[in-house]
Design goal:
Four copies of one chain form a homotetramer.
Chain A lengths: L5 E2 L13 H14 L8 E2 L2 H8 L3 H13 L3 E4 L3 E4 L3 H25 L4 H12 L1
Parallel strand pairs in A: 1-2
Antiparallel strand pairs in A: 3-4
Helix pairs in contact in A: 1-3, 2-3
The structure holds a DNA duplex (15 and 15 nucleotides).
DNA sequence: GTGGTCTAGACCACC
DNA sequence: GTGGTCTAGACCACC
């Protein structure tokens, strides 16, 4: 019964990745919040359970949850667990910032490959057809 | 006259960056090859000269050149230096494939944040101004 | 107890050899994998421990592990160590292909010296005695 | 007319190879002698011509010819060039030694891949069919 | 504890 | 001159 009222989230953990595990956990939670799979007040899966499910060190998960708490995505209640803190205003801003970062990084990347924006727009047409 | 027949490449080195120095060097060389500033057979600036120019340890540069050799962008001739191995066919395919992967991953990412292509195009205008 | 869950491998290190130390380490690990003394998921002895055991610089061992990672034999998890990545299918094919290439090259070489397969078989007997 | 009475030899030069160029030259000459394409008294292609043909540094070729002279495969006549010294006895021994080295190295290699002599004999059948 | 990057400097083979 | 290997040691992020 232990997970009765908690909400899990999708986590494509890749231990072989260069991206630190705590970052992967952080990103998975944020994505779930951005896409409203996790909403205000939801109790998130416990450190212990997540640790057991994926064979990750609990300290690593705690680090992820801690950062998420600092960033205002979660809050902790001693003895009960971590909960989603859906601050609509802040979220919007964060989401926008996240998006912009994605765009800017992407543009840098293709530039470093010698591609122009026009090349991208052409490629885009193949995807939007 | 010592660098008479070698070709340098643009390198915006940022020692404070989180991106390792050897990665920055790697990317700069790759970009020069992708954009055909360096072509098949060109002799690239020597480890020692590049080391001296930027105050980077020679080992760090060798690491970069080494990875580029593994990836087939350079080859080394002991006693003479590193040369560009511009395999046009393979290169084109790799570059195109890499680009497409970037585009497709990017589109997925923004979609998962609830953004549309139009949102992106709007954002794009801010960058291209 | 620190090495409780790591697996060592046989390493006949010869510091005086013309074969670089990192190559010797690489070959020892590959052999252990080819002969299934190391299998998928096994945690390999840490850079530091191996370094201490043989009095080799950690960087040298890291270089070996690094190449093995590039070749897909190992993968690293920051903070925990290097693990064997035994892709059975790929491995079998590679090993077989490599072996065949060796045989075919060898046969060509001795033929070009004017030796026959029978000459080889005679020579072989001296080795297998 | 300059090459009127000199004999060339096949040289598959691979500047990208890890094998030093002077070694490649040495081996090519030796192979030509072992297979009797070059025989006693033949005048071998001059350092200058070989250098020009392959774009190799003359010093590198001189090094190869020097070693071959030391090993008794060539002798030099000041002002005229290098000549093949076909010492039948010595040659036989060298050839035999070369062969044995090939065999022994080959056996080590396949052993390091985890293959047995029996595996080799099976593979051999496919080649001798 | 683990791997990852970087340095300063030595010494070698090759051209 | 060139690349290639190795060391001793510092400092960092991650678990």
């Amino acid at each position: 019964m232990k997970q009765f009222d908690t909400k899990a989230f999708e986590l494509d953990l890749d231990v072989k990745s260069a991206v630190p595990i705590y970052e992967q956990v952080k990103n998975a939670v944020k994505l779930a919040i951005f896409t409203k799979k996790l909403v205000e007040g939801d109790k998130i899966i416990s450190i212990r359970d997540l640790s057991a499910q994926y064979g990750i060190n609990p300290l690593t998960i705690m680090k992820a949850y801690n950062y998420l708490e600092i960033d205002g995505f979660l809050y902790s209640r001693k003895g009960t667990g971590y909960y989603v803190h859906f601050d609509n205003e802040k979220l919007k801003k964060e989401r926008k910032g996240f998006f912009r970062k994605q765009v800017s990084e992407f543009l840098k990347k293709i530039a470093s490959l010698g591609y122009t924006v026009d090349d991208f727009l052409k490629e885009l047409k193949k995807h939007t057809k």
